[in-house]
From TrEMBL:
<dbReference type="GO" id="GO:0005524">
    <property type="term" value="F:ATP binding"/>
</dbReference>
<dbReference type="InterPro" id="IPR003439">
    <property type="entry name" value="ABC_transporter-like_ATP-bd"/>
</dbReference>
<dbReference type="GO" id="GO:0016887">
    <property type="term" value="F:ATP hydrolysis activity"/>
</dbReference>
<dbReference type="InterPro" id="IPR027417">
    <property type="entry name" value="P-loop_NTPase"/>
</dbReference>
<keyword id="KW-0067">ATP-binding</keyword>
<keyword id="KW-0547">Nucleotide-binding</keyword>
<comment type="similarity">
    <text>Belongs to the ABC transporter superfamily.</text>
</comment>
<protein>
    <submittedName>
        <fullName>ATP-binding cassette domain-containing protein</fullName>
    </submittedName>
</protein>
<feature type="domain" description="ABC transporter">
    <location>
        <begin position="5"/>
        <end position="230"/>
    </location>
</feature>
<dbReference type="Pfam" id="PF00005">
    <property type="entry name" value="ABC_tran"/>
</dbReference>
<dbReference type="InterPro" id="IPR017871">
    <property type="entry name" value="ABC_transporter-like_CS"/>
</dbReference>
<dbReference type="InterPro" id="IPR003593">
    <property type="entry name" value="AAA+_ATPase"/>
</dbReference>
<keyword id="KW-0813">Transport</keyword>
Amino acid sequence: MTNAIETRGLTKRYGARTVVDGLDLDVPEGVVAGLIGPNGAGKTTTLRMLLGLVRPDAGTGSVGGLPLTDPVAYLPRVGALIESPAFYPGLSGERNLAVQAALAGTDPAGIPALLERVGLGGRGRGPYQSYSLGMKQRLGIAAALLGDPALVVLDEPANGLDPAGIRDLRGIVRSIHDEGRTVLVSSHLLAEVQQVCDWLVVIGDGRRLYQGPARDLLAGGGDLEERYLAMFTKERS
Ligand SMILES: Nc1ncnc2c1ncn2[C@@H]1O[C@H](COP(=O)(O)OP(=O)(O)OP(=O)(O)O)[C@@H](O)[C@H]1O
């Protein structure tokens, strides 16, 4: 199986603190991979390194088979939602996506369908500044799907979504997977992760505690929350 993402010894330090510590990641092509771990475990920092937003202090890796040191080469095939996406407040959701498509040199023709897909069909022409938190998040998800990304990286995509929004997000992630794309999603919503992810990476204190098929982690019975909490209780004891 080819890996969509591979890292060896990926490390990031801030001052004296090592926040990502020798991470070996293997995310196979075509999976929905969940990246989980406690607050401050290093999830966002890891995603930022994969997206070329933060420079690793050590380690090697590749995204889509291209070296991590050359994000300009692989980023055109990667869609991402990370932290609060930057949109122009006075422009509509639709215009914002058009601006992003123009910057990325991608075809804007699919934007109305994309807005429908994330549940913003009726509000795509309203100004971004009038959007609720959940609507902003939905627009961020739409932006991550612009172009034809082989890999979609979503950092806490459920942030700000209400229960219906979370259910919609589940459907969107499944449809991205059905299109043959790889998804890497970080989340604290373990029940959601258990429902949509077939590959799991668990990190604590910047180190990898588990990586592999979700079914292997869950094979002993119990749900993901139980497995996860047991892992961290063990780590602390
Ligand atoms: N620019 C920075 N400067 C200094 N420390 C940072 C910086 N970015 C992240 N950190 C620290 O790195 C550690 C890991 O942060 P990161 O945001 O990657 O964790 P996380 O697993 O995404 O956490 P959460 O679940 O709370 O979002 C934290 O202790 C954080 O304070």
